[in-house]
Amino acid sequence: MQQPIHESRFSRLGTVAAATVLALGLAACSDSSSPTATDDPTPGGDGSATVRGGLLVADPDFNVYYVSADDIMSGVVTAIGQGREGFDASGGLRVGDFLYTKNWDTDTIDQWAMSASGPAAEPTRSLAWSALCDGCGGYLWNVYNGDTLVMTKQFGWEVAEGATTTEAPWVMLSLPDMTVSAEGTMTVPLYGDELQAPGWPGLSAPLISGPYAYFGTTYGNEDVPYNTPDTMVTLRYDFPGFTNPTIIENPITSGDGSGWVGGMSWVDENGDIFQINLLSKGWWDYGSKHDTQDTHVMKIDGATGEYDTTYQFNLSDSFSHTISITQATYFGNGRVAVLVQNEDNYDDWDGMYTGNHGRWVLIDTVNRTVQDNLGLPTFPGGYFYGGFERDGKYYVPVVPAGENPTSYIYSIDINTGETMQGAAIDGGNLSGLQLFDHN
Prior knowledge:
The protein is mostly beta strands and about 450 residues long. It contains two helices and 32 strands. The strands form eight sheets. The protein has a five-stranded mixed sheet with strand order 5-31-30-29-28, with no helix packed on it. Strands 6, 7, 8, 9 and 10 form a five-stranded antiparallel sheet that branches. Strands 15, 16, 17, 18 and 19 form a five-stranded antiparallel sheet that branches. The longest helix has 4 residues, at about 130. The two termini are about 20 Å apart. Mean pLDDT is about 80; it is low at about 1-45.
């Protein structure tokens, strides 16, 4: 199960409000050992109905285009002379009949009416997000109850010397009207002075289940090597209102949980929260913990709001090389697509984007199994926005490293792991940012 090589990353300096940097990784370092799609299956040959979609792509100069296709599983999807401008690399979120995107250039959240041919020519509504919630982060991924977008400040804190807490604004937008249904300020506890640098912690977008809201965290001081917590740290609040902040910890492992990457935590059908820790050389000093700690799926009991330490699912045990997980997409019934990085192949953030180190894998959190034989090409994994699921299949663009790479959209059967090669992605050194459903 694979996805595009293109991702975005946010500035790791807490003093910067937010900056999206596209790490294309499209030049150089082709990996000749990368597996190829099995038997080059006939595009669209599974007899399924036409799958319409749209692809956000970026060129090497970071220009971003939206390209619509009548069928993403056959022919060629090309941005040459066809890509629509005016979109931002921050990705987007499809909710009902609308696409929501954040645009850093215009400081707006834009709402686009969607049809079979893609987004409308102009946004239906636009809101200045900094006016709604000063310092709120750049993610649109978590929607509560199917109709409420919840945003909070994610980084860029002002912490007084000797303080044990700081404050963060939050706002809830009702969709599709994009009206403010609630807003306020929440208290954010620190995690020890020795682990606190100016501008941190980093927080994920909140996951809400039952009476609680949960935030994955980055606590640490990037100026002090190896100075991050030795446990997995999550902030829990009473919801609604974001009151009574409580630090909960899982001692089984550690890592970043702040949501700089997509989908690394989710709520299942029972209301329980699942979370994957990020241990990567590409993020602070977390790669230094590989000698003593592994990559795990962890569970928070939705009823108690506490980590269920009886749940054990060590993903590292299923691989012969050191791994990190930088993307996860939950489909239901315990089925998850995870983007696995081979940490033995690179040394730092930039190295993650210059070679084919990432591949898609299916995991099952109920049976605690790993399916690592999907046969898709490897690519510079990094962090990105993702594809979409329809009728039991996950559709993703895959762009390997190299000069003018051969790139395709693939479908992955969520239950069997069977893959199929679809449309080619044409346009030279383009990078797939995100794939949207037009059906």
